[in-house]
């Protein structure tokens, strides 16, 4: 046990908040797709990994500066989002949930295989043009990468909240998610909005890939951050952007506290375990999450 | 003897429900039994029999998962973990009590059924995507627990050595002996599943799959039957885990990770949801996929890749083909290989006068 209990707690808390905001960024991609198309993306982690590979690969192979490779990654992921929606997801509209779940699981396998074949199995680095020196605030040390990541998350979360509440496209997307038939009757081109949602998820994943890739390095283990998306979105509610933020913060803080306080007793690994236990509890008590919409079922 | 009927000429309910509607069905079953129980083990070499053994083990697991996903409509991404529950139960019984296989196999199954039913409890309140995520959580939590509790996993590397089972005082040493041993359980699983689906329980499962609220309204206790589905399906998974442990000679949680759950889901989707024959086709297909990929690459891969790249690309190509096949079947042939088989059969049914 550390000497200064309150100091240790504060460190865990700030680290948790920082990581949590970065989880929220990845969860946002998931929520976007669910909100607009009612589809579940089990390949979100692989999207992030693939985006990271594009950015790191572009920087390594063509010696591009950071900003260019990040832009290339965003462009690549938008193209990927459009393409996948057209080839894989569109034929599955109206089919049972397990079909979509399995299709995205299949997609995850393909992306993992393709990325490793194209970019090799070794770990690549993304170098963000910020200093490596952590910023000291009292006893808390914050790496600038995390600050940038948290900043990007907050900016995007705010932008998407505005987008869904106020913009014409965002409102159309909500209408499509609510009822495809009614949306069509109102003259909304449902397919176009589906494709747009996947492309937007691509943008978010690209940013997630760049930020997480800078922090962890890019290899096929990066896809594992996708497993953290599920506790985050279940806690917050699958279709709530605010929920993604709050869920991300809770998961980030909980896993840091679990790792800080329980790891010495059980020999590690609580970080990956604790969020899922929390998630099961939430599923039992309030399946739609904190901010999710409750659905009424009819026969 | 070999003809099929040219139309529906049944005049009694008994004829409609007969197990063998035509003499040819009986002959076909007898021929399959002869081929797989007598001819295959006598003619094939150890290596090919060991591949057949893997397929047999996968058959049991795929049948079990199909009961849950295909017949009852509940998603589980945690079947790999249920298998590990069975595997470690059996391994501990063998190493600590020296239990024979006729105790370890049911015990492993029952333990997995218990855990499976526990995981299934939320299925009353949550469904679809939420249930998928809950079972995913169960997979990760069970994996973690086995890996971190030495009382279950036996300490180092979380693996326990398990000797091959003994039958009539003789240990099953060769793959062929193991093959016949496994075949017994596969036949049991096939007969068990097909009878289950003809029973009251099976019909309740199908009603729940088609529309669970409607099923509840016509008087099916959906909570009880959903738990039954989870328990029965996990029982199969537990037995699969025990059989696989006997096959490998070691219980190791790494053999039952998330990818295994996904492999089994792929089996029933590629084979055909809600179909017994489909489960078997799927088990064969998914088990053979990596093996055939490797053979093909070793034979022709030298043209495309250098020898060093070959080894790396095998696992990646396997992943890619696996994912592409899942997507292909979902998009193009949602009813899987079973549907293809039925199409072929129906074509030859009235052949050569197909009009």
Describe the protein in words.
With 299 residues, chain A is mostly helical. Chain A is 73% helix and 2% strand. Chain A has eleven helices and two strands, in the order ααααββααααααα. Chain A has helices spanning 5-37, 44-61, 66-89, 97-119, 144-166, 168-178, 180-185, 190-216, 226-236, 241-266, 270-285, and strands spanning 135-137, 140-142. The mean pLDDT of chain A is 83. In chain B, strands 1-4 form a two-stranded antiparallel sheet. Chain B has one domain: ABC transporter involved in vitamin B12 uptake, BtuC, CATH 1.10.3470. The model of chain B has no long low-confidence stretch (mean pLDDT 84). The radius of gyration of chain B is 21 Å and the shape is globular.
What percentage of the residues of chain B does DSSP assign to strands (E)?
Answer: under 5%
Give the biggest beta sheet of chain A. Answer: 2 strands, antiparallel
CATH class of chain B: Mainly Alpha
Radius of gyration of chain A: 19 Å
Query: What is the CATH architecture assignment of chain B?
Result: Orthogonal Bundle
> What letter string, H or E per element, gives the SSE order of chain A?
HHHHEEHHHHHHH
End-to-end Cα distance of chain A, whole Å, is 56 Å
**Largest sheet properties of chain B:** 2 strands, antiparallel
Distance, first to last CA of chain B: 23 Å
Quick overview:
The complex is a heterodimer of chains A (299) and B (355). With 299 residues, chain A is mostly helical.
List key phrases describing it.
heterodimer, A: 299 residues, mainly alpha, two-stranded antiparallel ribbon, 11 helices, 73% helix, globular, B: 355 residues, ABC transporter involved in vitamin B12 uptake, BtuC, 4 strands
Topology, please?
The complex is a heterodimer of chains A (299) and B (355).
Chain A: H1 5-37, H2 44-61, H3 66-89, H4 97-119, E1 135-137, E2 140-142, H5 144-166, H6 168-178, H7 180-185, H8 190-216, H9 226-236, H10 241-266, H11 270-285
Antiparallel strand pairs in A: 1-2
Helix pairs in contact in A: 1-5, 1-6, 1-8, 1-9, 1-10, 2-3, 2-4, 2-8, 3-8, 5-6, 5-8, 6-8, 9-10, 9-11, 10-11
Chain B: H1 13-17, H2 23-43, H3 46-71, H4 79-97, H5 101-120, H6 129-148, H7 150-153, E1 159-161, E2 166-167, E3 170-171, H8 175-198, H9 200-210, H10 212-217, H11 222-248, E4 250-252, H12 258-271, H13 276-300, H14 307-332, H15 336-349
Antiparallel strand pairs in B: 1-4, 2-3
Helix pairs in contact in B: 3-8, 3-9, 3-11, 3-12, 3-13, 4-5, 4-6, 4-11, 5-11, 8-9, 9-11, 12-13, 13-14, 13-15
